[in-house]
Amino acid sequence: MTDTAFTLLKPQLDNATGTSLWIADENLLNQTSRVNPAVTVISNRFDLCQQLENAGWTSQFSDFDFTAYADHSVDNIIYRVSKEKPVVHHVINQAIRILKPGGTLSIAGLKNEGIKTYLDKAKKLFAGQMEQSKLDKNTWMGILQSPGAADSELLDDQDYPQLREVASDEHFNYSSKPGVYGWNKIDKGSAFLISELAQFTERLTAPPETALDLGCGYGYLAMNCAPLGCKITATDNNAGALLACEANFRAQGINGEVVVADCAEEIEQRYPLILCNPPFHQGFSVEGDMTDRFLNAARRHLQSDGIACFVVNLHIPLERKAKKLFSTIEVIADNGSFKLILLAQPH
Ligand SMILES: C[S@@+](CC[C@H](N)C(=O)[O-])C[C@H]1O[C@@H](n2cnc3c(N)ncnc32)[C@H](O)[C@@H]1O
Question: For ligand 1, what atom is nearest to the CA of residue 26?
Fold first, then answer.
C-alpha cells in the first residue's frame, strides 16, 4: 500500500543535494524510492534500516539521535511525520538546530495525524518561511526554510531523549521514554501475563535456565522473569526500547542481555521459556502479519520441551493462527479484555 504522504515527499528525496537526512520510522516500511546517495536515512526501526540498506541506502539506526550533527551543518531534512507527538516535536526542534540558514525541512503527513497543526507550529518556529502543498484533501506537505535560529519557543518534546522512571510495582522501578511502545505505563496485558506466570511455568519439567522476551519494549516481561533465576534475552527492533531495556537491566541488576533484531531473526539460540506481548500493527501493515511473524519467531526459538506464553486482546485469533506451528495450544486465562495462551510442542 502506498502512503500518500510519502508520495508527496518523494520529489524532495529524489532531488536532495548537499548533506541531507531522511528521518524515517515504521510508517515507511515497504515504501520505496530510488536511492539518492546524498541522503542518509536516520531511523529508530532496525527492520527499516535493514530494508533500506539492502536497497542501497546509507542508514543510521538510532533513537532519532542527532547529537553527531553540529549546529547548522545540514542542508535538507525530509520527514514523514511519526505517530507520536513528542517524536514529531523532537525532530522539528532538532531540525532548526542542525539546518544551515536557508536549509529546508520538508515535512508531510495526513490530516488525521495532525499534520496541519504540526505545519502551523513549525511555521511559527521557522519564522513563517513555509511553502505549503497538498496531494488530496487529507495529505499535506510543508517545505520550511530555516531562518538560522528558532523564532519562537521550541516545541514541547517531553524531553524526548531522556529516560525517566515511569512506573513501579512491588518488584521494580521501570524507566522509559517517549518513542517506546506504551512508554509511560505498565501494559495491562503484560501485567496480566506476569500475574499468571506460575500457571505457565508449572508446566515446565525443570526450572528454565534461559528465557526470551520477544518484543521487549522497556523490558517489563523480561524483568519479571528474573525471580525465576534464568538468564534473560530481551529483543526488540525499536532503538528507544533497547536503550530503556538496557538501562532497566543495569539499574535493577537483571541477569540478561538486550539484543537488537527484527522479530528475533538475528538470534540463533532456542529457549525453554518465551514471553511475548506481540504488537498489533506496524506502520501500515495489518495486525495479522505481525501476529504471524511473532508466532513464527516463537516456534523457531522454542526448545522442543519448552513453552511460549503469549498475551493478546480477546479478538485476536491467535489459537487459530498457532495451529499450524504448535501441537499444544491452550488458553490459560482470560480476563474479559486479554487472553493468555500457552504454546508448546513446536512443529
Ligand atoms: C505490545 S508491545 C510489548 C512491549 C513489552 N513487551 C511490554 O510488555 O510492555 C510490542 C513490542 O514489539 C516491538 N516490535 C514491533 N515490531 C517488531 C519487530 N519487527 N521486531 C522486534 N520487535 C518488534 C515493539 O517495538 C514493542 O516494543
Answer: 16
- Residues 2 and 217: their CA atoms lie apart, in Å, by 28
Task: Give the amino acid at 32.
Answer: T
Residues 304 and 253 both lie in one domain = yes
pLDDT at 26: 75
**Dmax (CA) of the chain:** 67
pLDDT at 124: 95
Nearest of 276, 283, 288, 185 to residue 225 by alpha carbon:
276
In angstroms, how far is CA 176 from the centroid of its own chain? 13
Best residue among 172, 185, 216, 300 to mutate for probing ligand 1's pocket (most ligand atoms within 8 Å of CB) is: 216
Paired sense of beta strands 302-313 and 338-346, if any: antiparallel
Which positions of the chain have pLDDT values less than 50?
Answer: 287
Q: pLDDT at position 129, please?
A: 85
Q: How many angstroms is it from 238 CA to the middle of ligand 1? A: 8
- Which of 145, 179, 213 is at the close of a domain? 145
What DSSP state is assigned to residue 227?
Answer: G
CATH of the domain at 252: 3.40.50.150
- Domain assignment present for residue 121? The answer is yes
- From the CA of 142, how far away is ligand 1's center (Å)? 32
Residues 121 and 223 in one domain: no
- 54 lies in which domain range? 4-145
Instruction: Please give the pLDDT value at position 152.
Output: 86
Residue 114 lies in a domain: yes
End-to-end CA distance of the chain: 33
Mean pLDDT estimate for the chain: 94
Residues 264 and 334 reside in one and the same domain: yes
For residue 15, the model assigns a pLDDT of 95
> Which domain-ending residue is among 95, 118, 145?
145
Q: Domains in the chain: how many in total?
A: 2
Contact 225, 308 (CB under 8 A): no
Give the pLDDT confidence score for residue 283 in this predicted structure. Answer: 53
DSSP structural state of residue 183: T
Tell me if 154 is assigned to some domain: no
**Contact between residue 235 and residue 213 where contact means Cβ atoms under 8 Å apart:** yes
